[in-house]
Design goal:
Elements lengths: L2 H5 L11 H32 L6 H11 L4 H17 L22 H9 L1
Helix pairs in contact: 2-3, 2-4, 3-4
């Protein structure tokens, strides 16, 4: 065994995790990441609300992300979710029954293009 392999082992833990433990670890990590994102979104919305009289919501979100030094992929997710939350107040909710407050949606016609290609 060389000196370098003693100083820098290939893996730090002598045993690998079982498949079940690996899966539980990934699930726990996903829950933690989701909780972190939701906490950031809640705080970003509070930040936007606090600065509403001084700056617009987009600028407030930019300031939040910059001041907290949120890394870019995470910053994009936080900004998108915060914008969705802000937009929900502007767009009426869509109900399953299609009541009076529902937004009319266009019919999706996925098969028309395929039918035209077959005819041509």
């Amino acid at each position: 065994m060389s000196l370098l392999s003693k100083l820098f082992p290939e893996n730090l833990f002598p045993r690998k995790l079982s498949a079940d433990a690996e899966q539980r670890l990934r699930l726990a990590q996903a829950r933690a990441e989701e909780a972190l994102i939701q906490t950031h979104v809640d705080n970003a919305l509070m930040f936007v609300d606090t600065l509403a009289t001084d700056v617009g919501y987009e600028r407030a979100l930019d300031i939040y992300v910059r001041e907290l030094a949120v890394p870019d992929p995470l910053a994009s997710v936080i900004a998108t979710r915060a914008l969705v939350a802000l937009g929900e107040a502007l767009v009426p909710s869509v109900t399953a029954e299609g009541g009076a407050d529902s937004v009319p949606m266009p019919a999706i016609r996925l098969d028309e293009a395929a039918a035209r290609r077959r005819r041509a």
